[in-house]
Amino acid sequence: MMRVLSACAGVGRVEINGEGATKFSKGQRVISFNWGALKGNGTWQQYRVVPEKTLIAVPDSVSDTSAAQAIVNPVTVLGFVEVQSFAPTRACS
Fold first, then answer.
1. Which tens digit of pLDDT belongs to each residue from 3-58?
2. d(Cα 83, Cα 87) in Å, to the nearest integer?
3. Of 11, 8, 67, 66, whose CA–CA distance to 34 is shortest?
4. Phi then psi for 83, rounded to 5 degrees?
């Protein structure tokens, strides 16, 4: 039986930098566009090792809840709009 940890949405803190990683400091909040969910290593776990180049810093003004959704939710909405073939409309006032 293969262990699979799902999910793509997540926010985390840098715990330790690997060899050659210098862009983020310990404790800095980050999101990633490559948590590894497609390989069974999603965000539903306490620790993840990801390439530094896939990380994006999270500003202090952004909540963990908002940051965790920043990568996945816009793509979900775009897919929904494309599949449903919504025509552009004017904004509500």
1. 555 666 778 899 999 999 999 999 999 988 766 656 666 667 778 888 899 899 99
2. 11
3. 8
4. -65, -40
- Return phi, psi of residue 81, to 5°: -65, -40
Q: What residue ranges do the domains of the chain occupy?
A: 12-84
d(CA 35, CA 57) in angstroms, rounded, equals: 14
Q: Which residue shows structure tokens 């909405």?
A: 77
- Over residues 59-93, the pLDDT tens digits come to 999 999 888 888 777 777 777 777 777 666 666 65
Looking at this protein, which amino acid is placed at residue 30? V
One-character DSSP codes across 20-33: T--SS-TT-EEEES
